[in-house]
Amino acid sequence: MPVRQVSRVRALYRRILLLHRVLPPDLKALGDQYVKDEFRRHKTVGSDEAERFLQEWEAYAAVLWQQANENRRNSTEKACFGISLPEERLNDFRDEQIGQLQELMQEATKPNRQFSITESRKPKF
C-alpha cells in the first residue's frame, strides 16, 4: 500500500473513532470494535478493494458527522444515527459481507442488559 494511502487509512480510522464518541455507550462500543475488526481484516487487500473500502468508510464518517451535528442542534429530540440500506445494494455484497451484516444487526438490536438501571428499593418504615 502506498505511503499516501497508509496515512489516509490512519487518519480515517482515527476520525471514525473520534466520531463514535457522540454515540450512546453501547453503540460506541459496538462501533469501535467493528471498525477495529474491519480495518484489521482489510490490511492486506489489493489496491482496488482498498480504495472501495476507504470510500465506503469515508461516506460513513461523513454521514455520522452530519448526524452528530444535527443531533447537537436538535438536542431536545432523541438522537438518531444510521441510514437505511437499500435492498438493491445488498446485491453488491459477498456472502461473507451479508453474514457480517446479519451479525451486526443482531448485536445492535439486542436488549442492552449491561446498562440497565434498576430502581433502588427504599426502606419501608
Automatic annotation (TrEMBL):
Cellular compartment(s): Mitochondrion matrix
Pfam families from the UniProt entry: Complex1_LYR_2
One GO CC term, this protein: mitochondrial matrix
InterPro entries attached to this UniProt entry: SDHAF3/Sdh7
Start and end residues of each stretch annotated as Disordered: 104-125
GO biological process assignments: mitochondrial respiratory chain complex II assembly; succinate metabolic process
Description of how the protein assembles with itself and partners: Interacts with the iron-sulfur protein subunit within the SDH catalytic dimer.
Protein name: Succinate dehydrogenase assembly factor 3
